[in-house]
Amino acid sequence: MFSIEYFSSLTPYIDVLKNSPLPIFIYGMGDGCAKLAGIFERYKIPCAGIFASDEFVRDKTFLGHKIRRLADIERQVEDFIIVLAFGAGYASLIEKIDRIAKRHRLIVPDMPVVGDGLFTIDYLQENFGSLEAVYRLLADSRSRLCYESLIEYRITGDISCLKRCETSRVEAYSLLRLGTGEIYADLGAYTGDTVAEFASAVKGKYLRIYAVEPDRRNFRKLTENTSGMPSVTAVNAAAGDFCGAVTVAKGGGRMIKKSESGISVPQVTLDSVLGGEGCTYIKYDVEGAEMQALRGSGRTIAKYKPKLNVALYHRVDDIFKIPLYVHSMLPEHRLYIRHFPYYPAWDTNLYAVPAI
């Protein structure tokens, strides 16, 4: 199934939207909607309107459209296509979207978190050699199914592709084979949710945790949430490939992205944080700066050959550039890919684990 002929035969969601005789409504406001509206303009896709969940309507307008309720549109329009313009990771919200998808054609475009590139058929064909190289490196059938499904999803915007490759975090953690002597580095620690997840997985038995988070508000919550945990070093900085300062976009939240304008924050390399000390497990979720953070961990990875968990969805080329780079650093490690329930495919990770 993993062939350029198969993927090239799929109907891209852009073509579906361009050629649809049905009206097209965008679901959601904010940055995602603005980004999607830009895609609509670029490909000359007409937008019939924008709607939001009932609790967010309140006589609002966005991009010149009066924000409507889905129920009102359903009373007025017999049939239409819905395009999702936001990320959904909570079970209740995913279930709500699934119910909508049973009533209407739903397309969930794969818009990268960072950058403007789209995973088109042309992009697939230009980079198929790298994609195929990653596919051949994957260590199990579940990873290969996940990779196939993610590529098909990126072209079609069909959430059924994501449904067939979802997995649980418990199963993903089992790949890491974590023990009681772990030294864990959490790059992009947010408010400590993944620190708590790790501590739970090892039943509170670890040697040390390093948690790196650039946003000041998130960092305060991180220190509060880890205050009762032993041997935790929290660092208020971005993770990258040099020590100094970088500019990130304002706004806070989980997605603290590097930007040409915004606010200046300190940046560190993991190598500098550890100062030559050991590390057994590193997580990278740094909003599009994963490659830089990996380079900033180069000495640590070369010396200690730790387990890695790397976000694989922020940039359009992460899906092949990151696995190939990790393989070049750790050629003896086994590579796995897992996707957790999320629309679009924003919770997809690469796991690099020493062979047994």
Task: Give the gist of this structure.
The protein has helices at residues 4-9, 13-19, 30-42, 70-76, 91-103, 121-126, 128-137, 141-156, 159-163, 169-176, 193-201, 216-226, 270-274, 290-295, 298-304, 318-329; strands at 24-27, 49-51, 61-62, 65-66, 81-84, 105-107, 183-187, 208-212, 232-235, 238-239, 244-248, 263-268, 281-284, 307-311, 333-339, 348-354. The protein has 356 residues and is of the alpha/beta class. Strand 7, helix 11 and strand 8 form a beta-alpha-beta unit.
Key attributes of the depicted protein:
356 residues, alpha/beta, seven-stranded mixed beta sheet, four-stranded parallel beta sheet, 16 helices
Itemize the secondary structure elements and their pairings.
Elements: H1 4-9, H2 13-19, E1 24-27, H3 30-42, E2 49-51, E3 61-62, E4 65-66, H4 70-76, E5 81-84, H5 91-103, E6 105-107, H6 121-126, H7 128-137, H8 141-156, H9 159-163, H10 169-176, E7 183-187, H11 193-201, E8 208-212, H12 216-226, E9 232-235, E10 238-239, E11 244-248, E12 263-268, H13 270-274, E13 281-284, H14 290-295, H15 298-304, E14 307-311, H16 318-329, E15 333-339, E16 348-354
Parallel strand pairs: 1-2, 1-5, 5-6, 7-8, 7-13, 8-9, 10-12, 13-14
Antiparallel strand pairs: 3-4, 11-12, 14-16, 15-16
